[in-house]
Specification:
One of its GO terms (molecular function) is UMP kinase activity. Its EC number is 2.7.4.22. Belongs to the UMP kinase family. The protein contains eight helices and nine strands. It is α/β, with parallel strands linked by helices and 235 residues long. The protein has a single domain, classed as Acetylglutamate kinase-like (Carbamate kinase, 3-Layer(aba) Sandwich). Strands 4-3-5-2-1-6-8-9-7 form a nine-stranded mixed sheet, sandwiched between helices. The structure holds uridine-5'-diphosphate.
Length: 235
């Protein structure tokens, strides 16, 4: 296996499936199955989940809402997604823990790095909710932060496109995919992998980012087994 401990980043929108809002139980169940396959290979899996399928602070602010208030709502949205994912994984008999950056201790454990690592070592999937716990950040930044903290080998960002392209492949059919690309080239070519805060945090800490299509069945396991799936962003 290529990786021993991974941080999987799933956006909230990915959970919508074909819906316009919220959570598609079918999609959630599919993801749980994909994750189970990897856990069964002895890979330690931590997950950061987004909240864009429910609420984004920026969207609230554009309608006149206080940004911090909106971001708190966004962070709570990630906890809702975390609980849903936890439930789907447990339906697959995968042991899990949800740890949140904002305390909601009747519902989830507070985030404690040492505890998270212990859970991973015991084969439990650890889902990190509430992002970084701070407004004005994204769950991509939370994903990089947690990945560094728990010493993950890489951050795997599951998206609906299968990597980083020269141009937007949904707009230009001539766009070419990179198998690997350096952090420096991503910036120089003006490509977008993550928001800048997340991206530079990853670069500074030499944490590789892999962008791949999480909706293609078996992709996650293939990637972990060393197959060339998606695009690797590295130093
Ligand atoms: N959020 C935040 N701090 C964080 C992470 C997230 O305030 O550290 C809020 C922010 O409002 C954001 C929302 O939670 O818009 C949902 O996260 P994100 O937009 O990253 O989710 P995704 O795009 O991955 O679904």
């Amino acid at each position: 296996m290529q990786y021993k401990r991974i941080l999987l980043k799933l956006s909230g929108e990915a959970l919508m499936g074909d819906r316009q809002y919220g959570i598609d139980p079918k999609r959630l169940a599919e993801y749980a199955k994909e994750i189970k396959e990897v856990v069964n290979k002895g890979i330690q899996v931590a997950i950061v989940i987004g909240g864009g399928n429910i609420f984004r602070g920026v969207a609230g602010a554009s309608n006149g809402m206080d940004r911090v208030q909106g971001d708190h709502m966004g962070m709570l949205a990630t906890c809702i997604n975390g609980l849903a994912l936890q439930s789907a994984l447990e339906d697959e008999d995968v042991h899990t823990r949800l740890q949140t950056a904002l305390e909601i201790k009747e519902v989830a454990e507070p985030y404690i790095k040492r505890k998270a690592i212990r859970h991973l070592e015991k084969g439990r999937v650890v889902i990190f909710g509430a992002g970084t716990g701070n407004p004005y950040f994204t769950t991509d930044t939370a994903a990089v932060l947690r990945a560094i903290e728990i010493n993950a080998d890489a951050i795997l960002k599951g998206t609906r496109v299968d990597g980083v392209y020269t141009e937007d492949p949904e707009k230009n059919t001539n766009a070419k995919k990179f198998e690997t690309i350096t952090f420096k080239d991503v910036i120089e070519k003006g490509l977008k992998v993550m928001d800048m805060t997340a991206f530079t945090l990853s670069e500074e800490n030499k944490l590789p980012i892999i962008i791949f299509d999480m909706n293609k069945k078996g992709n996650l396991l293939k990637l972990i087994s060393g197959e060339k799936i998606g695009t690797i962003v590295d130093i």
